[in-house]
Write a structure and sequence with these properties.
Elements (H helix, E strand, L loop, with lengths): L1 H20 L21 H22 L4 E5 L15 E10 L2 E10 L8 H7 L1 E7 L5 E7 L4 E7 L5 E6 L5 H8 L9
Antiparallel strand pairs: 1-2, 2-3, 3-7, 4-5, 5-6, 6-7
């Protein structure tokens, strides 16, 4: 188990190095990908998935935000916490202490085909600051919205899923990208 954690940290570190060396991957990813298969789950399946996501967030956030502590996960849901009515996406909040500051984030996992905007179209609606390959056939787009003080990472995946994580803490984009590209956050399992 310890070796797995070391390997996960190494992979996350290599992914972050990609931001420094190739901050201009293409936003021309074909979207939606061919043969996207929508996923529909029961309320019970979605609750089980939400529990799995929360357990993983408690491990993933301290790895991405090295040294983060007191990780608290919110309830997953759609328009309201705990509401799972044939959902095609799920979101929750996560808060923790990082470098002596309180950090709040929001994570959303979208089923294949639910997120309609391509990376390029998304960048036409906001200020994108970097785009990098996730080395798994997808692309991660970093963006910011100065009006609300939000920084964000969206991971567009070859199966049509999009996972995004946002924060109100400037300078956390690379850490958000590490979480967004984590394949444990998937709608298809």
């Amino acid at each position: 188990m310890r070796m797995r954690n070391v390997m996960t940290a190494a992979v996350a570190g290599l992914a972050l190095l990609g931001f420094a060396s190739s901050a201009s991957a293409s936003t021309d990813l074909t979207w939606p990908p061919k043969d996207v298969k929508p996923v529909h789950k029961t309320k019970a399946e979605l609750q089980k998935q939400a529990d799995r996501f929360s357990a993983h967030q408690k491990k993933a956030f301290p790895r991405a935000f090295l040294g983060a502590r007191d990780v608290v996960t919110g309830n997953w849901g759609g328009e309201a916490e705990g509401v799972f009515d044939d959902m095609q996406y799920m979101g929750n909040s996560v808060s923790f202490t990082y470098n002596g500051a309180n950090v709040s984030t929001f994570t959303q996992v979208n089923a294949p085909g639910f997120h309609k905007l391509s990376p390029k179209e998304y960048c036409e609606t906001t200020t994108c600051t970097a785009t990098v390959s996730d080395h798994r056939g997808g692309v991660t787009v970093l963006a910011k919205d100065d009006r609300f003080g939000i920084v964000e990472a969206r991971n567009f995946r070859p199966n049509g899923e999009v996972v995004w994580v946002q924060s109100w803490t400037p300078g956390t984009e690379k850490q958000l990208a590490a979480v967004a590209s984590d394949r444990a956050f998937t709608f298809t399992k």
